[in-house]
Amino acid sequence: MKPGDKIIILPSCALTEMKLEPLVGLTATIVEVNDISGNIRGCWVNLPGQYLGEREWYIPYNSIGI
After folding, report:
1. CA dihedral defined by 54, 55, 61, 63, rounded to 10 degrees?
2. Contact assessment for residue 30 and residue 55, using Cβ atoms and an 8 Å cutoff
3. Looking at the domain assignment, is residue 12 inside a domain?
4. Interatomic CA distance for residues 50 and 1, integer angstroms
5. Which of 2, 17, 24, 63 is deepest in the core (most CB within 10 A)?
6. 17: domain range?
């Protein structure tokens, strides 16, 4: 995973806890990969349109499909 890659947002408990279920199924573009010591935690992504007035959102690793 690297910036510029396209992902599909998948359902997960983490996404539900963040109240971002409406994003499930959308295709997004990775802006920044959040990794700690080589372990990917999630990614900041650009959505194809706005959600709650924002285009850039943090998506947890278990909600990222390639």
Report:
1. 90
2. no
3. yes
4. 23
5. 63
6. 6-65
Q: What is the pLDDT of residues 19-65, one digit of tens each?
A: 999 999 999 999 999 988 888 899 999 999 999 999 999 999 999 99
pTM of structure: 0.89
From the DSSP assignment, how many helices (H) and strands (E) are in the chain?
A: 1, 5
* Phi, psi (rounded to 5 degrees) for 17: -60, -30
Is residue 4 exposed (0-12), middle (13-18) or buried (19+ Cβ within 10 Å)? exposed
pLDDT score, position 36: 87
State the pLDDT at residue 30: 98
Q: Domain of 46: which CATH number?
A: 2.30.30
How many structural domains are present in the chain? 1
In contact, 28 and 45? CB cutoff 8 Å: yes
